[in-house]
From TrEMBL:
CDD domains: Radical_SAM. Its cofactor is [4Fe-4S] cluster. The keyword Isomerase does not apply. It comes from the Bacteria. This is Radical SAM core domain-containing protein. Pfam families: Radical_SAM. Residues 33-244 form the Radical SAM core domain. PANTHER family: PQQA PEPTIDE CYCLASE, RADICAL SAM DOMAIN PROTEIN. It comes from Chondromyces crocatus.
Amino acid sequence: MEASERPRAKALQLAPPLPSVREEHAPIPRAEAWWAESLLVTFAFRCNLACTFCMVEDALDVYAGTSLEEMRRATRDPTVLRGAKRIIFSGGEVTLAKDLLAYVEAARQLPGIEHVRLQTNGVRLVDKAYLRALLDAGVDELFISLHAPDAETCDAVTQRRGSFRRILAGIEAVAESGAALFTNTAIVKANFEVLPEIVSLVAPFGPRSMEFWNYWPRGDEEGARGMNARVSEVREPLLEALGRCVMRGIPPVVKWFPRCLLGEFAACHDDGQPPSLIEDRYWEREPSYGCIYEGVCQEAPARPGGSTAGACVGLSDSYVFEHGWEEQVLAPRRGVRGPGRDDGEKVVRGDAAFADAAGVGRSLTADAGPRRSEQAVLAEFLKPLDLHVGMRFGGSWALQEVGRARGAEGALVTLTFTPSAPGGRVIVRLHGRDPARRCAVRTKSFDVSYRVEGAVRAEEAAGMLRLLFEQLDGRDPGGLRLP
Ligand code: SF4
């Protein structure tokens, strides 16, 4: 087909650029990916507020949560704590748990842990003796949710009269205590217009960071709650709020809002979330995200279902049900992959340092479970073989990536192993058994072959492959199927 015959793309009416809302000299800090070095531990699934947008509403008074003993047991596995410098406790409302201090003390005993953070609504922190006990036990970071700058809006959102006054008193108490204060605001229809005022209210308390999380519609898959504010309407007050943060020296972070609408604040966007100890069924209602431009936009995950580390996940299905795909509003970025940052550092951050385990377990959106996540499907497949992406193998090797495909020889799964010295890799292929196929080894369920690429020493690859073949053979019970 000649170029002139191709159907013409519909001209997009992109949202006009907004004027800069900050002073020229105020540098915009990049979102700190604190989640990449954190482990989230959840318990205390009950609450003294009743926020209209609650993302664990179905879990309250239902989930047992991670017991202290379960936390201790899980964190004995070094892969669970891998790279973690921070334990984050969240629920529900963890300050309602009588044994919270014991959790904090246990967290402080864990190897490599430098920070213990509570995600809380802050209501109980007004009790200074209680706050002091938390700090003495080892809490050094308080991440407090505040969703409005006035009592009327706040109390309407939390559905508890007096909540605004108590939350603010909790924020003040934390600021006075010297502990690190962080705030979080959920962006919903009820509050998006007052986001800048929230910054003005909180800034005098000296927060280390202010986060703005666009509505996370867990349990609201079809947008029935009517919480999703139009991104085109949120954009202006959100940018104003981010500008106020920057002018006051407070690093802002934005999650689950289209990165392409953040203009000069794109570097403040980060959709990552830490790996979590939480009941499996939490993931069954995980919101799905996508973008109509994900095939062309360099900010989207590199492949459908792939790692979301450093990427923009687009809009939730819930949002799309309520408002559509916003194809006239979004502005896909074509060019070098990376979250709105054209420098080399970004590429390193997005693709290596933070893309731990190829995204598995490193992001709520990537960790959505077999219902939608490709990586989750493959992780399930690897489990009986005692393999997972990101694991060290045979000393100096790492299982870097897993993928699946359908070729001339039928379905296959590929496992990519890389040595600690860069420059080469070994790709192992698993096919279903076929007596006519030539392969390196045949387990009860699979034909296994491999290919060595790049600068890999033959004896080093042979050692790793020998171990791998032994493991596959030993672990394969027979009857396994390729996903
Ligand atoms: S993937 Fe690209 S086009 Fe889609 S919302 Fe994100 S930045 Fe915008």
